[in-house]
Amino acid sequence: DTEVTQTPKHLVMGMTNKKSLKCEQHMGHRAMYWYKQKAKKPPELMFVYSYEKLSINESVPSRFSPECPNSSLLNLHLHALQPEDSALYLCASSPGGEKLFFGSGTQLSVL
Amino acid sequence: LAKTTQPISMDSYEGQEVNITCSHNNIATNDYITWYQQFPSQGPRFIIQGYKTKVTNEVASLFIPADRKSSTLSLPRVSLSDTAVYYCLVGDRNNQGGKLIFGQGTELSVKP
User: Fold this and answer.
1) In the predicted structure, residue A93 carries a pLDDT above the cut 80
2) Which domain holds residue A44?
3) What gap in Å lies between CA B59 and CA A41, rounded to an integer?
4) Could you report the per-residue pLDDT of A20-29, keeping only the tens digit for each?
5) Chain B contacts of A105, Cβ < 8 Å?
6) B49 → closest Cβ in A33, A92, A99
7) How many other CB atoms are found less than 10 A from the CB of residue B35?
8) Cβ–Cβ of A43/B41 closer than 8 Å?
9) What is the DSSP letter of A83?
10) Closest listed residue to residue A14, CA positions, set A89, A78, A98, A93
11) Please, which residues 1-30 of chain B have a Cβ atom closer than 8 Å to chain A?
């Protein structure tokens, strides 16, 4: 299995909602990433987990809360988002170095 | 972290060879160079990775000069389906869970 699976594929939420994005991989990779991508821009790093511990937080607002329940799963909890948070959220896993395996992303719209 | 610089966009025609160059002047000794391809509304996809000289796979070739301050991704005989954004990344291959930053990328448009 060489896939990174993200759910849901699309999400519409209001500014007062709480929702979660999910990411799963079964390649045995011990590093997992969240990126945010706006239209016509490169992916922007948000968080990195290494061996299930948060190793990098790129000064992301607290309304985004990552969680790594086990080595195969990565969640991103969303609360009180703003319309400018609307973007494609990408999850990736890595066996090491800069070789990343990406999921197809969750297209998020905040109303 | 080594910063990368690429052309913002390139145009080509079907059947031509396309070369996209990436500049990484402050690349470190342990850094490898990796290229990704991204289609709209999809995650980037790994294309090729190298350290020095030349690497070739079924999709592309990667040329890296001796000083390693730049690299060139070569796509042979492009087709319309190669229209995408191409990113080069530079980072320590031995680093597990390191900070992997995407540059602006090159938007390649292949025309009939």
Assistant:
1) yes
2) 1-49+90-111
3) 25
4) 999 999 999 9
5) 41-43
6) A99
7) 25
8) no
9) G
10) A78
11) none
